[in-house]
Every structure is written in structure tokens, then in C-alpha cells.
Amino acid sequence: MNGGLPRLRVERARLRVVELPLVSPFTTSFGTQTVRRALLVEVEGDGVAGVGECVAGIDPAYSSETCAGALSTLRDHILPSVLGAPPADVAGHARSWEWVRGHHMAKAATEMALLDQAGHATGQSVSQILGGVRSRIGCGVSIGIQPSLAATLTAIEGYLAAGYQRIKLKCKPGYDVELAQAVRQRFPGTPLMLDANSAYSLQDVDQLRALDEFDLTMIEQPLAHDDLIDHATLQAQIETSICLDESVESLADLRAAIALGSGRILNIKAGRVGGLLPAAQLHDTCGEAGWPVWCGGMLETGIGRAANLALASLPGFTLPGDTSASDRYFEQDLLEQPFELAADGTLPVPTGPGLGIQVEQRRLDEATVHLEELSPK
Ligand code: NPQ
Ligand code: MG
Known about the structure:
By secondary structure, the protein is α/β, with parallel strands linked by helices. It is built from 13 helices and 13 strands. 52% of the residues are buried. The mean pLDDT is 97. The structure holds N-acetyl naphthylalanine and magnesium ion. Magnesium ion (MG) binds next to loops.
């Protein structure tokens, strides 16, 4: 880790909701998104500013958190714990909101803003602060459920041509074996995985076992978000490695999953687990257990995308993640320099202070649909 972060004050905060249209609708087993509504947390203190992105969705479908719920939790509970508090380092500020149960995405957004602020104060990048070792990140792409198999094959072709290193396909009961078969036939050697977002139950074990013949690198979150025991039962009955996403919201969840054998791989998202510092802890625990990890994605704007790249620079992130380029989701990102995929399918880890990005103010103003200022009570 770092040689200690500075103690800073948070004298003002701003909560901002932005809306960015998606380049194409994104359909999962839980619904279709056509726009990304994101909640931004902006902090300022001791003359240094920071920004963080909350990845909660509009509806409580992927997780129980929502954008509107996070807004109220941040305004009424989390930010009042740090606004006007004595100077503290990021971990110290995070301890002041430990009393808030759950609301990991709201906490993670605040922590991201504080890490950006701390980095700006010292000149360190968030990657350096976290102990990153990589300067470029191998990227995969997550492809939503398409209107037809032909459309899926066309989409895959385009992303492979752009350089993406692995393909993840959203699936659901009835849109799985045929899908994997068709894609495998057309792209025999491509690293391929499926993500079910909890759409199956143990009743579907035959369908899930049928996927074993397609050489999938993993199947992500086949079963319920809170059922580690059923995931362990399933893992014992299929050859394909299970990767957990929704099931792991904390170190305690991860320890249980490892002890039970509920999977073999972890998708780490800082929002889901309450911040980048907790995410780094989960990464360490996975390393001790021999679980490879990769960095998930939540359709982040460039702000959250920069944080994902910093996280993915840690040594255990050995698999390509959902850290796609800005243009995978948005025609216009919020940044002066959108993240562009190199021909080898990598994105650079930002090296500038903090998140290492520059938000384009005009674009930010254009995208803003709600803004509120907070100061100490
Ligand atoms: C996953 N992400 O790994 C998620 C699912 C997801 C890139 O596949 C709004 C809020 C939109 C949450 C879209 C990817 C979302 C969302 C997808 C979560 O399971
Ligand atoms: Mg997932």
C-alpha cells in the first residue's frame, strides 16, 4: 500500500445527477437500460477537490440500491458524517460512516471522491495509492441480450475487430445453450463467458451442465444473489467455473463463498463492496485462496471507469474485465479525453494525480439533471 494518505477536511460537497444516453440499449436478464443515470459526489476541502461516481441503477434490480435512494442516504447520513469533521485520511473518513448499514454504492462513491481528493493533494494516482502494478489493462466487453443470434454474432465480430480480449454474453433461461453453441461454432478460440445475473435456480442444473461442452472461461452469477449454498451445490455438479458477482458484497460474503466452494473466480466491483479500499481487501483475500479476480463494470461514465482501471492495476486482476472503452457505452463521455481501446485490447491506467482524468465542464453541465450543495450543519 501507500506510505499513508494526508489528513484532509471536507468543507463542502455537491450531489449531481447526470444522464447519458447509451449508444444502444443494454438488456440483461433483469431488464433493459437505454440511458445511464449516474450520481456524482463532489467534495472540496483544504483547497483540494475530488469527484466520485455512484453506480446504483434507476431501479433496484441488479442490487437493492437505487440512484434516488443513494441520493437521500448520501445527503442525510453519509456526507453529514464527514462534512465539517476533523481532518482525516480516507480510511478515517470511511470509519465515520461505518455505522450506516449497507448502501455500499453510496459509500463507494464518497470514498472514490476522497481518494481523488487525496491523490490531488499528494500527486499520487489512485492506482499508486491502492498498490497498482500494471500500466495497461486487458479489456473484455459485456454484450447484452440481442434481438437475434445473428445480431449477437455481428456484435461480437465488431468488438473482436476493435481488439477486445474476451467476450461476455448476458444469458437467461432459454437463451443459453443455443447461444453458446452458435458463438462457439463461429468463434472457436475466443475467450468466452456468460453472465446470468441470478436468473437460474438449481432446477436448471441440466441446462447449466449442458454449457460445459463450450469451453467457457466461466459462468457468472447463475443463481440467486443471496444463495452461496446453492452455488456450492451447482459448482460441484458442473465443470465450468462459477464466477460470483451479486453474491459477494463484503469480505464476510467472500470468506463464506471460499469456505463453501460457491465458485472459483470473483468479479470485483468497488461499488458493490463499499469502496476501492474494501475492493483491494477482497482482492488480497482472493489471492490467498487462489481465486483469480477481474474488474466488473456498471456502465460507468469516464469517472467511474478511471477508478475501475486503477483497481484493475492490482496484481491479482489477471483476467480481462468489463473495463471497456468509453465508446462501448457512450457517444460522448464526460471527459476531455475519453478512454480509447488500443489495438491490443488494452486501456491505459491513468497516471495523473487522483483519478487522473479531466471532466469536460460543458458536457457535464449539459448532462446534469439535478444538483444540490451541502455544507456542514
Ligand atoms: C454485471 N454489468 O456484471 C453488470 C450488470 C449491470 C457490464 O455486464 C444500471 C445499473 C445498469 C446496474 C447494467 C455488466 C446496469 C447495471 C448492467 C448492472 O452483472
Ligand atoms: Mg455480473
